[in-house]
Write a structure and sequence with these properties.
single chain; 546 residues; alpha/beta; Urease, subunit C, domain 1; Diaminopimelate Epimerase, Chain A, domain 1; 3 domains; 9-stranded mixed sheet; 6-stranded mixed sheet; 19 helices; 25 strands; globular
Length: 546
């Protein structure tokens, strides 16, 4: 058909009118494999971001519907909602960079060498470090302070075990803390050998030493938070659920976020001190676009690795020792009733089967009249099979998949074969509760979310061991694992209406990966890399885009 000038003019005019009718937006992502994790569970190939939120989600037709300042063609790269770490220690991660790094030490001699190197040519008031794990040593006994006393007679030394539930200190630290053979502290243990102090403190007695150590300055905390943020962004995290943070540090985080000096979203579980609990119960939850303070972190017991987890029967490798409750049964029940009458969530650390039973029974009693409490059991690690039924839709298991693959080399020694039937039971917990929140407990474990995903679905460590997976009946599916790291993590924080999926109206927090972890072979998952992390539609980390 021949087009005359009039027809050409009309076509051009229609094009101009159509262009002017297009909604102007900040940017469009297209030609991607988008896992929305939305309520319908659909995938998409494109989405629109404007003013920090998802405006539209669909296919390539979005390119015609909107006029974008920037168009990002991902050439089929996968996109996911950014990851949520549902249990971590954000400030501790940053502060650990300022201390002796003892992660990966293969012997106590290795520990001593690292402490020596760290302290040489430094003017220090105290030497602190974290990360040792005697289960990784050929001699798996808890260490003794004798060599520390010889090397450092005049300066306090305090070295935390990797799980944070045991502390090795020298005699100088014991003296400054006033700890003697006669000292007793409920809720833990002062370890002795042949009637003499070994320098190892488990759980509650550790506070006696931490009180006499120099506390980090505000400047050191700010640097620690900003360092931790960069590590988080590089690993695809935009929300961290921080387990146990005091009022002072909550206010510091809030002030930094408001000044634009910290961007990471924080779900803060308030540390269980009388002062902090009284303050927040009086003033109520606190919420901004980056900070959410509406839960309390309670400790029921200690950790399995340091034999502080509260068990119903003795440890298999230590007669007449059942661990210890940090918070008594009566106190846990009283706290549950108190918090059930408030708008706050109760998130309780429970490792051993005795601790989990007490916590779950306290929750059951307190939540009779609560419709949607979303109370959490942090770790939910060792559970008597008879007690698994105590989990239900009101109680969310918040677990760390890499704990299972780290502990598997020695867990049976601690527990025996029978108790492993209810250990690290992620799939069973999901079936009981309907949702499961996944995290790392960093710096106890690595920040790396791909190790979390891999451990959840394969039940293997980074060496691809064991071949069939550890306690393989409790493997999660890839979809379940991804939900546990995104939308279910948001749900556990009461934030599923604003984040955790790529849906219209939610904040534009998303990540681009170099491979599709939902489809590649298990072996390739650990080789995955973050291409870019977006928060509020802004790039906060990238190794490819500007």
């Amino acid at each position: 058909m021949r087009i005359n000038r009039f027809h050409l003019y009309v076509l051009l005019l229609v094009g101009v009118l159509l262009s002017s009718c297009q909604t102007k937006v900040d940017f469009i992502v297209h030609n991607a494999t988008v896992y929305t994790m939305g309520s319908m569970g659909e995938k998409a190939s494109a989405f629109v971001v404007n003013e920090g939120k998802f405006l539209d989600v669909g296919g390539e037709e979005l390119l015609k519907k909107y006029s974008a300042k920037k168009v990002l063609d991902l050439q089929s790269l996968p996109v996911y909602p950014s990851f949520i770490d549902s249990h971590c220690h954000f400030l501790s991660l940053g502060l650990s960079l300022q201390k002796v790094d003892l992660v990966g030490t293969k012997s106590f001699e290795d520990v001593l060498n690292r402490v020596n190197r760290f302290s040489s040519n430094k003017e220090l008031q105290a030497i602190t470090g974290r990360g040792w794990d005697q289960n990784d040593w050929s001699n798996k006994e808890l260490p003794n302070k004798e060599q520390l006393d010889s090397l450092f007679p005049d300066i306090p030394v305090a070295l935390r075990r990797i799980d944070g539930h045991a502390l090795l200190v020298n005699q100088k630290a014991l003296d400054l803390a006033g700890i003697t053979n006669d000292t007793f502290v409920e809720g833990g243990e002062i370890v002795k050998k042949n009637g003499q102090l070994t320098g190892v403190l488990i759980d509650a007695p550790m506070k006696l030493v931490t009180k006499i150590l120099p506390q980090p300055t505000t400047e050191e905390k700010i640097k620690a938070l900003q360092d931790a943020e960069q590590i988080g962004f590089a690993n695809g995290l935009t929300t961290v659920s921080v387990a146990g943070v005091n009022k002072e540090d909550i206010f510091l985080i809030d002030s930094l976020q408001k000044k634009g000096l910290l961007s990471m979203r924080v779900y803060a579980m308030i540390a269980n001190s009388v002062e902090d609990m009284d303050y927040f119960l009086k003033n109520g939850p606190y919420k901004t676009d980056k900070l959410n303070v509406r839960s309390f972190k309670i400790y029921a017991d200690g950790a399995l690795g340091s034999r502080g987890a509260a068990l119903k029967e003795s440890y298999s490798d230590l007669d007449n020792h059942v661990g210890a409750f940090i918070t008594s049964k009566d106190s846990l029940e009283n706290l549950a009733y108190k918090l059930a009458a408030s708008p706050f969530q109760m998130n309780t650390h429970a490792i051993g089967d005795a601790a989990n039973k007490v916590v779950l029974e306290a929750y059951q009693k307190a939540l009779v009249f609560s419709e949607d409490p979303r109370w959490r059991v942090e770790h939910a690690q060792i559970i008597d099979t008879a007690d698994l039924k105590l989990f239900n839709r009101k109680i969310i298991p918040s677990v760390q998949p890499t704990h299972a693959t780290s502990d598997m080399y020695w867990a049976e020694d601690r527990l025996g074969e029978d108790r492993l039937l209810g250990a690290y039971a992620n799939k069973t917990l999901l079936e009981r509760s309907g949702r499961i929140a996944l995290g790392t407990d960093f710096p106890v474990e690595e920040v790396n979310p791909f190790k979390t995903f891999y451990a959840a679905i394969a039940r293997k460590d980074s060496n691809e061991f064991p071949e069939e997976g550890y306690l393989p009946k409790n493997k999660l599916s890839p979809s379940e694992a991804l939900k546990g790291m995104t939308i279910w993590g948001a749900y556990a924080n009461f934030e599923d209406k604003e984040k955790g999926s790529i849906e219209v109206g939610k904040v534009a927090d998303f990540i681009i990966l170099d491979r599709d972890i939902m489809r590649v072979s298990e072996k390739r998952i650990l080789k995955s890399r973050i291409v870019a992390t977006f928060l509020d539609g802004n790039i906060v980390y990238s190794n490819r885009f500007n």
